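Recall that a protein's primary structure is simply its ordered list of amino acids. Everything else, from secondary elements to tertiary packing, is in principle encoded there. The following example makes that idea concrete.
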Amino acid sequence: MSFLEGVFSRGDRRLSKVVEAAFEAGCRFDSWGDQFRFDIWQKAFKDKGIDPEFYTYRKRSKDEVFPWSHLNTRIDKEFLYEEYERSIRGEKTPDCKTDKCGICCICDHKVVKNVAFYSNGGKGQGSGAKKQKHLAPCPLPLAPSLKIRLTFSKTGEMKYLGHLELVTLFSRAIRRAEIPVAYSAGFHPLPKTVFCQPLPVGIESIAEGVDLELEGYMKPQEIVERLNSTLPEGIKILEATEPLTKPHFIAKTPEEATYLVFLENSPFLPANGSRLDELINGLMTKDEIIINQEREGRQRSINIKPLIKNLSLIDKATLQLTIDKGETGSAKPYEVVAHLLGLSNSDSRLIPILKTKGHYETLRQ
């Protein structure tokens, strides 16, 4: 297994046909010892005419162009090679927090500064500078940030995309569009994006929201054009605005959301259109509307009457539904429709629903 890790960590695109051949030959769950079949991998290499030892045991020269050389890691190759030679000689690399700058090229000494550089007034620590031992960490000035709010639609086949997949999709689109998004700190930096409450899978929307925090200024219209050129069909940025108040992010729970429910040509539409109006009136005049919900594998009963702010018929086969958030729970639109029409939740999910409006709280700093 370690041998294969060495091959694929150093390999190039020619290995793709080996991966495909091994997969077709039955390689699955290779990280599990009882599922690992090294003999199949060996045969795949042989069948594709590739010697795996070329990638693992061969010594590489300093000037070789590596398969990953086109990736920008912000660390200069010369620095890495010098680090390699230091390790062979058993030498330690100076810590730039307490010693001179190692010139690794991570710090640009403008936005990103090492502590030694910043503590010396931005002059660096050359050979003539006195070494500063045990420097206390100095707070670095933060680059000015800008909050941008995006409104986007999620329609067509994209309505089946889950929330986590949507977040990943936006992260990749932002990178491809070269939007200067800010990242969180720590060992696993993530783009500073905050999405509104996840939309139930299978429901379309023209009123989704996400806030971006940018490291530099970019015109909202340029952000719209760049992202729309990289996003897939079904996800479209409709508007980008700069918050007019202090920096804030969208709260994950909306105050209200408005939906259109399309019953035309639906097998669940009552035969008599007037009966649908009667069902709505009968439901809204009740003191309580109790439904059973399943959340995280648990069953519960909830009164959704206080959550329904509006339920009306805007034509003979289209409902308009506005749902508010509650202190003790919430309701999904298909749950309200299921109770109205006497359907199961699985059947009500087959009815086309479009979110048209969402009012979101703001978190102010």
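The radius of gyration is 29 Å. Residues 255-357 form a domain with the Alpha-Beta Plaits fold (CATH 3.30.70).
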